[in-house]
Design a protein that fits this description.
This is Pyrrolo-quinoline quinone repeat domain-containing protein. It comes from Lentibacillus kapialis. The strands form 8 sheets. Strands 1-32-33-34-2 form a 5-stranded mixed sheet, with no helix packed on it. Strands 19, 20, 21, 22 and 23 form a 5-stranded antiparallel sheet that branches. The chain contains 2 helices and 34 strands. The chain folds into 2 domains: 390 residues, Methylamine Dehydrogenase, Chain H (7 Propeller); 30 residues. By secondary structure, it is mainly beta.
Length: 458
């Protein structure tokens, strides 16, 4: 009986501490290998961790790239200054600060303890190469922020690079796709795409890289085979004059989705395109309408969620839902200028605009379910959702983390409905069961101690 007491005491202690151990688990994914994490560009991750509290991460300058969350760290870079930051997600503490040689519009993607980021600006050289001063890719130690290597390119690397099979792929303003060794930065291969890539961050789906490009006309969309380093197909868009080279494509279920502008800057028309991922054939195309031309990031970036395309148009100032396969328009929601990709979870799609607002819409009907005012221009950095926490960068230099519960989502009845899914309900049930077990064991332990005390007295 003497041996039972310490055993049960140890078990009681372990069960009591287990909630603390659970809370100490990593908040974000283990890796972030391309723009917006997933090929469908719906940057959502959930491992059962509790949402973050309201948090503001302060940087030095405008943020125009999507914040990257890996483990318990947040990585983000600045537009004009090239400042690079890592923050502790729980405390908001700045862990390290370094600087790239030029603008940073690229995300800081992550693989096995290293972050990779592109740098460069949008100004053209006399030769037609896009990007002046220094351009290239940096690799930094994710723990210390120390630069591990730097590779210089002739043109800008404003699009986010992508990781695949030990290599970093960068699409550039000098009309090439670079393949670099992820550990050394050594150039492995350099393929000419024949067109400038401005902000179309390459998307990797299985063994293929997809990217849009611009000058010289015709604007062209390309699929690049990563297994043999050659182009699978290139589809020309002779009517396009802007946007195709700005938009990171979304890929899902054999369909590639992108947007672009036709006409001219006096009367631009915004188009949504769906291409066959294997052949490049245009499956369908839909006009979103005409409107006023906007400076920079002229064409909205799409995501794919539950066989639907969601995209905002800075030209028509309207947010849209389309069926992925048929191209049928499902609904539209008029708003302000919006440029960033949205994000969707649990039947709700969230989008941000240039007025500092984030809106929550029913993904099926387009009905407004909630909204949240933040600050600054929320573009072109789009929101992401990590464990029921919406995270978005702003041109006011801050990254905002907001628990989804603050949107006070409305049910059909009009009653407030806190954000909660089956996973959350399951977690609550598991925690309740855990506390019940601890209570029972505590009672048993107390009973044993009383029994042993009385037996010793007798």
């Amino acid at each position: 009986m003497k041996n039972v007491i310490p055993w049960m005491a140890g078990l009681l202690l372990a069960l009591t501490l287990s909630p603390v151990i659970t809370m100490g688990a990593d908040f974000g994914p283990d890796e972030w290998l391309q723009y917006r994490l997933n090929s469908d560009k719906n940057a959502v991750f959930d491992n059962g961790s509790e949402p973050l509290d309201n948090q503001i991460f302060e940087t030095e300058d405008e943020i125009r790239s999507t914040p990257v969350v890996v483990g318990n760290k947040l990585f983000v870079g600045n537009h004009n200054t090239g400042d690079l930051f890592a923050f502790d997600l729980e405390t908001g503490e700045q862990l390290w600060h370094n600087q790239a040689p030029n603008w940073v519009h690229s995300e800081m993607i992550y693989h096995e303890g290293t972050v990779f980021v592109g740098f460069g600006n949008r100004y053209f050289q006399d030769s037609g190469v896009r990007g002046t001063e220094e351009s290239g890719v940096l690799a930094l130690d994710a723990e210390s922020g120390d630069i591990l290597w730097k590779y210089d390119t002739e043109g800008e690397v404003m699009p986010t690079p992508a990781y695949y099979n030990g290599h970093i792929y960068a699409a550039t303003g000098d009309k090439h796709i670079y393949q670099l060794d992820d550990e050394t930065g050594e150039l492995i291969n350099k393929s000419s795409i024949d067109h400038v890539v401005s902000m179309s961050s390459p998307t990797i789906k299985e063994d293929t890289l997809y990217v849009g490009s611009g000058r010289p006309s015709p604007y062209t969309f390309s699929a690049y085979d990563l297994t043999n380093d050659e182009f699978k197909w290139q589809t020309e868009f002779p009517d396009v004059f802007a946007g195709l080279d700005d938009v990171p494509p979304a890929v899902s279920d054999g369909v590639v989705v992108t947007t672009a502008l036709t006409g001219d800057s006096d009367n631009p028309e915004h188009w949504l395109y769906a291409l066959d991922a294997e052949t490049g054939e245009r499956l369908w195309e839909k006009s979103l309408g005409t409107g006023d031309f906007v400076k920079n990031n002229k064409s909205g970036a799409p995501i794919i969620y539950e066989d639907k395309i969601f995209v905002g148009s800075p030209i028509t100032k309207t947010f849209y839902a389309y069926d992925l396969k048929s191209g049928e328009k499902l609904w539209e929601f008029e708003n302000e200028v919006m440029k960033a990709p949205p994000v969707a979870q649990d039947g709700i799609v969230y989008f941000s605009n240039t007025k500092g607002m984030v809106y929550a819409l029913d993904a099926k009907s387009g009905e407004l379910k909630g909204e949240k005012e933040l600050n600054g221009t929320l573009a072109p950095s789009g929101p992401i959702i990590m464990n029921d926490t919406l995270i978005v960068g702003s041109q006011d230099s801050n990254v905002y983390a907001v628990p989804l519960s603050e949107f006070n989502l409305k049910e059909e009845s009009g009653q407030d409905s806190p954000v909660k899914n089956e996973k959350a309900n399951s977690d609550e049930s598991n925690n309740m069961m855990q506390y019940v077990i601890v209570a029972i064991l505590a009672i048993l332990l107390i009973g044993l101690l009383v029994y042993m005390y009385k037996r010793k007295r007798s």
